[in-house]
C-alpha cells in the first residue's frame, strides 16, 4: 500500500474533474447530480486500478475528466436509439424490422406532439372505434369487409382463434407447424387460444383428404399457415387456401389463413418471387386473414386481421382485443404507410422496404464504390477498403430462401481483427451493425439508407483515431 500511496495521493478531487474542459462540455445542460456521480465513478475506477498495481495509471485531471465524460455519456444516452443497418438483412428483427417511410415518421411526430382524435369522431364528437383511422384504407387496398389491428401477428392469431374456436378443434397441416422468433411455436399459441390442435398430413405432403378425414363434430376451424420463414422443397405439396376454404364451408366450418409476412401486393410485378397476398386469400374465401404490419407491409409493429365483418365485430368484443389493441402512435404510422399503397406507381420511391427490395444492382454498386473511396481517403493505409459482390437477405420471416444480389464494401486492417472492428462500430454513436465474413467486415449498401454514409465515415474515423492513441 505504501508504494501505491503516491498514485492515490495524485487522484484529482471531484470538483477538479467537474471543472475540467472534457467534463464541463459533457455536463452542459445536464443535472449536476449526474455529473458528480460520473466524476466519483471515474475517480473510484482510478483508485481501484492503483490498488491493483497499475503503476502507469494516468491520474491527471484531464484523463480522469475524459473518463468521467465517457461515463456520463453512456448513462445519459438513450438505450433505444437509431442504428445503421449495414448487414444486408432488410427486415432485421434485431434492428426493428421495417424502417418507416418518411410520411409515417411525420405522422408519428404529429400524433406524439399532443392530443389526437384517437377514438373521437370529429364530426359528431362521439366515441368511435380506433380502427376507423385505418379500416377504410385496408378495405380499399385488400377488398376486406372489415379490419382489426392488434400489437403483433401472434396476438392476431390468439385473438382470432380464441374468438372463433375456443374449446374446439383447429385443424392444421403438420408441414405448417412453424416456430417464429424467440422460440414461440404455433402449437403453443393455439393452446394459449384455448383451442385443441389437430395435426394432419406429413411434414412434406398434406392433401385435402387429410383435412376432410380429420373433421369431427368438435371441429370449428381449418387453419392454413403460410411458410413465410421457411421452405420445404423436393417431394412436397400443400393444399391451396381456396380448396381448404371450400371444404370448411362445405362442412359448416370457418377457414383462417395466417399469412405472416403481410404482402399487400403481387411482388412479381417488381421482379420478386410470388408471395400470397391478403387480397388473394380473401378472394379464395378465407373467412379471416392475419399478418404482420412491420414486414413486407413496411409499417410499424402490429398484427392485422381482415375478414368478414360479423366475425371481426365478435373479435372486438373479446377481452383479448382490449389486451392486444394498439395505441395512437402505431395507428398513426400504420395509416400513413397504408396510404402509400394507394399509389403503387411511386411505391418503390416512397417505401423504404420496397426501395431496398427493388434497388438496381448497378445503383448499389455506385454507392459502394463511392463509400469505399471515402473510406480510403479518411482512413488511409490503416484500413483497406474494396468493393466486392455480396448477397442480401429479406429477413424477418419473409421470402424465405430468397437472396438478392448486392455489392458490399469489404474492410480489413493489419492492426485490428475484423471482429474487433465490427465490435467497435457497434459501440459507435449511432451503432453501425455489419457482417463479418472471412476475417473482413462487410458493409452491404442495400440496407444503408441514403443519409447514413456520412455517419459510417465518421464512425470509422473515430475508430482510426482511438486505435492510434
Number of strands: 15
Backbone structural class:
alpha/beta
Unreliably modeled segments: none
Strand line-up of the largest beta sheet: 2-10-9-8-7-3-6
Q: How many separate domains make up the residues?
A: 3
- Oligomeric state of this protein: single chain
Shape: elongated
Describe this structure in words.
This protein is of the alpha/beta class. It has three domains: 5-76, no CATH class; 84-93 and 356-467, Aspartate Aminotransferase, domain 1 (Alpha-Beta Complex); 102-346, Type I PLP-dependent aspartate aminotransferase-like (Major domain) (Aspartate Aminotransferase, domain 2), CATH 3.40.640. It is 42% helix and 16% strand. It contains 20 helices and 15 strands. The protein has helices at 5-9, 14-19, 21-27, 32-51, 61-76, 102-112, 135-142, 153-165, 186-192, 208-214, 241-250, 278-283, 309-316, 319-324, 328-340, 347-350, 352-358, 361-379, 418-426, 453-467, and strands spanning 84-85, 146-150, 169-173, 179-180, 184-185, 196-200, 219-225, 254-260, 288-292, 303-307, 384-393, 403-412, 432-433, 435-436, 441-444. The strands form four sheets. A seven-stranded mixed beta sheet has the order 2-10-9-8-7-3-6, sandwiched between helices. The protein has a four-stranded antiparallel beta sheet with strand order 11-12-15-14. The longest helix is centred in the N-terminal third of the chain and has 20 residues, at 32-51. The radius of gyration is 28 Å and the shape is elongated.
